[in-house]
Amino acid sequence: MSTSTTSSVLLVGNFLSGKVGNYSVCEDLAGKLESVGLNVLTASNQAARAARLLDIVTTTWSRRHDYTAANVDVYSGLGFGLAEAACFVLQAAGKPYALSLRGGNLPEFGRRWPRRVGRLLRHATVVTTPSDYLKQRMEIYRNDIQLLPNPLNLSRYPFHLRDKPTAKLVWVRSFHHLYNPTLAIQLIADLQHVYPDIQLTMVGPDKGDGSLQATQQAAHDLGVSDRVQFTGGIPKTQIPDYLAQSDVFINTTNFDNTPVSVLEAMACGLCVVSTDVGGMPDLVDHNQNALLVPPGDPAAMGTAVRRVLDEDGFAEKLSRNAHAFASQFDWPAILPKWVRLFETLNENANH
């Protein structure tokens, strides 16, 4: 079935929710753009690296007559190579395209590969990022990067005020060493004697680097296996259910940008305790709508959790302020910015 090139766009990113359980921002974006009348092509839903590369390259080239402009998500590491491949084909096809800088480790990647990063950003029609953190640190490669925040479907995340929090914690992320999931286990081991009923739910798929197995082994070795539930990858629609069952959200990552999982937790009114890495200090207001602690420090994270659970009125303040903060990321506020972005790209296509 042919599509109209006057209202068709290509999104290159992670469309893997059907296989790994994580529902990415670009999957949500595809549906929203279709709801306002754009035809959307996507790549890729292939999880294996070689199959993913092949799908991105072949879709971008073989469907070049079916779209006028594209957006490519950019991560560090091997994911950066996928973005390079997509952009190479887009240039060969003569298509205008935007880059969405999403990887929290991109500044460090850029220090190791400055020419590659500079070349990729330089050739794009537009470059956006969801965080001030990446905007500031990547402007050494291009000084007109636009801020385009990650959005939420706020109606999917019912708010419950945490005025009397319990020791029920939740962690939502992929199991990968960058996200340091074993820190969550160390935290539970440290706090179990203070809060005999403490429980942790860890929600997320296995990224295959051994982190899930290491986390499960740590739970066994530290004697907290009965306090930790591993759900595996789950559909995006079930995330609010797991958030509703907990009162404290912990984010243990060593690198970050503007994690949607944190915004989801804030929208639901959970009290967020996060490492102060990457874009987190630029995203949240420490001591007002979240608490930030140094990375890799279970004692500091434990102290923060104890404040939430024990300090009168503090959890209520964090919960109320978190929900108010997350409200500004609702889709109705963000979607018009994406529509304008593609209008700009289509204007370039017509010149």
Automatic annotation (TrEMBL):
Q: Name one GO molecular function term.
A: glycosyltransferase activity
What are the residue boundaries of the Glycosyl transferase family domain, all occurrences included? 163-323
Q: Which domain of life is it from?
A: Bacteria
Q: What is its EC number?
A: 2.4.-.-
Top-tier EC class: transferase
Which InterPro entries does the record match to this protein?
Glyco_trans_1
Transferase: is it a keyword of this entry? Answer: yes
Q: Name one Pfam family in it.
A: Glycos_transf_1
UniProt keyword annotations, A-Z? Glycosyltransferase, Transferase
**UniProt keyword annotation of Lyase present:** no
Q: What is the recorded name of this protein?
A: Glycosyl transferase group 1
Q: What is the lineage of its organism?
A: Bacteria, Pseudomonadati, Planctomycetota, Planctomycetia, Pirellulales
